[in-house]
Sequence to fold (235 residues):
Amino acid sequence: MRCRVLYFARLRERFGLAEEALELDGVPSVADLIAQLQARGGVWLEELAQAKRFRVAVNQELVQVDALIPDSAEIALFPPVTGG
Amino acid sequence: MKVAIQTETFDVGIEMAAISHNRTDIGAIASFVGLARDMNSGSEVSAMTLEHYPAMTGKALAAIVDQAMQRWPLLDVSVIHRVGRLLPGDPIVLVIVAASHRAEAFAACEFLMDYLKTQAPFWKKEATPDGERWVDARESDNTAAERWVRD
Fold:
């Protein structure tokens, strides 16, 4: 299945990428997607190695890493938020 | 309920007047204004840029306001959050809560800010004499939000 992955703030700058389309196998969870991105090594592994350093939203809602990804989902990866 | 994300500034007086316009059941209005500071983590800050996730921000703020309205008997809530480039002294965020009595107005105002700080997708980047830097999330903000879960 296909999904759209968006990156914000520090992650967007470090990855040099604001968004991409990805193909995922089976019924993937957020953890499966993270593992696939970590496998790219370099900054990907560095930024995504520690769960405390990033947050994930699926279809614009914050989720935990065990959440499943529905088909055609919009997934966003970003640093812990700092508004207000 | 009003939720707005905007680059322009806001007028607290106008927003306060709007929330009580044409109604006489409100007995208490509590408000919070967050401002951009000229110092953070030991460095001078000359400007700040706020980035957000447009498709999610409005939804996330509306969900936070809904939670507050379920928790306390509130009469109305306004939340305005600015994005883009801000200078020290500029207002960043406004929360106004209207209720019959002060206790729920004060409590809900704090709750809204604590949740906004930990759940709404905004990120601050500061300009300092050593260059630009992303602001790190603070553990104390998580602790502040968690106290509402324990209560």
Q: What stands out?
A: Chain A touches chain B at residues 6, 8-10, 57, 60-62, 74, 76, 78-84 (CB under 8 Å). The domain at 2-78 of chain A is CATH 3.10.20.30 (Ubiquitin-like (UB roll)). Chain A has a mean pLDDT of 97.
